[in-house]
Amino acid sequence: MTGQWRVAIAPRLCIGSGLCLCLGTAPGRFRCGADQRSSPVAVLIEPDDAVRDAAANCPVQAISLTDADTGEPVSLVP
Fold first, then answer.
1. Half-sphere exposure of 76 toward its Cβ, with a 13 Å CA cutoff?
2. How far apart are the C-alpha atoms of 65 and 51, rounded to whole Å?
3. What is the C-alpha separation between 60 and 1, in angstroms, rounded?
4. Does the structure show a pLDDT above 60 at 1?
5. What's this model's pTM, rounded to 2 decimal places?
6. Which of 9, 17, 21, 75 has the smallest C-beta neighbourhood within 10 Å, fewest atoms?
7. In what helix (H) or strand (E) does residue 69 lie, and over which residues does it extend?
8. 63, 51, 48, 59: which is closest to 8 by C-alpha?
9. DSSP reduced 3-state for 38
């Protein structure tokens, strides 16, 4: 694995539950748009357990994490 992950949120899947930012899982890593759906603050990030937790706990699995170099999915289990 490289030193960076690519964070993506599928806008059609996101229901705006706020688990990733409003409830404190990873508030500095996601922002809420006018449509109440989340988006990443930065697409490329250093590995971050809070972001991994947000992806693992998303109720609709809208958050994906991939290795920035290989494109391989990042395991949601630390």
1. 12
2. 9
3. 26
4. no
5. 0.89
6. 75
7. none
8. 63
9. strand
Q: Which residues of 46-74 are buried (b: 16+ CB within 10 A; e: fewer)?
A: eeeeebbbbbebbeeebbbbebbeeeeeb
Write out the E strands in 1-78. Answer: 5-9, 30-32, 38-40, 44-45, 63-67
Token duo for residue 66: 């991939």
Q: Which pLDDT value is given to residue 22?
A: 61
**How many CB atoms are located within 10 Å of the residue 10 CB?**
13
**Which residues lie below 8 Å from residue 24, measured CB to CB, with a gap of 6+?**
none
Instruction: Quote the mean pLDDT of the chain.
Output: 90
- Is residue 75 within 8 A of residue 6, CB to CB? The reply is no
pLDDT in tens, 41-66: 999 999 999 999 999 999 999 999 99
